[in-house]
Amino acid sequence: MKWEKIPNEKVFNETVEAVKFRGVDVIVVNNREEALEKIKKIIPNGVSIMSGSSETLKEIEFNEFLKSKDHGWKDIHEEILNENDKEKQSDLRRRALIAEYFLGSVNAIAKTGELVACDASGSRVGAYLFAAKKLILVAGFQKITGSLEDAIKRVREYVYPLENERAKKVYGMPSTTGKWVIIEREIFPNRITLILVKEKLGY
Hints:
The chain is of the alpha/beta class. Helix content is 41%, strand content 21%.
């Protein structure tokens, strides 16, 4: 499929350099196991962490590692799940955006360096812009597109239909391309790290 095309080495390397030029740190790894190990090394003990809904994080088994509690982090997501009052839970979700470390993925990466992410409510991308102190994004290399315009098309033509079907099964309601983020430049050094995996991950 067009939107699952694997980039050649030249395009891959050009993309890495373009993303770095826009102020985002890039770590290249070969597979999902290496991606998880990098996350473990990057995040120090004792910090608060939150992760957005992400098929990629599931596939690298980050969610399972988090549930195992075999780490020294303060898992904000666990606090949210333990709160039964819906209004209080909603407030906790908003406060979670300012976690010291927020993890997620992107829906597309333009060869020109822009990162594109979209979700229905903004509970994930709300942290990407400024709120989270540190942002770690994990993405498979099939998400690389030829341009920013193609990155946006990838979301509309490929990602959204898949996410819409998932949402209907999981939540009993359709999704929407409600909130968009385009990271064109990060002005705060070392705030965003993209772990770019040489595997197909997520959608």
